[in-house]
Structure formats: structure tokens, C-alpha cells
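Archive record:
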Amino acid sequence: DNIPCYTVSELGEMLPISATEGSRTSKVTNGWNVNYDHVDSSKGYSCGDYTEADARGEMLIYLLENHLIN
């Protein structure tokens, strides 16, 4: 069975422009980090995972679950 999944660039396109303006995606020793400096105008958020797609996906889930994007 084929399971549809998003690519790194598709996940990047799903993140809002306002979030991406304060963002950094960086390769680290054991994976990738995605950092947003001002997600909700009061604090930043950082997440990381083994792949860039997983790290971006985690950030997207965080933004959605915390009602920071629709």
C-alpha cells in the first residue's frame, strides 16, 4: 500500500509567511532543528528530529494544536 506524505518543500509551504520570517531551519549533529523566534508574539518555539521533514512537520503540528495558525 502507498501512504501519501508531504515533502520538505510542501511542509515549508504550509507554514505561514509570518512564522517563516522569524524562522531558522538548521542541520545539527543528530538531525534537524526548526526554530521560530516569535510564534505567538511572546515567545519562540524550537523542535528537532532526525529528518528535516519530520522537524518541519512537528512545527506545523505545534502551530495547529496551539491555534497559532488555521
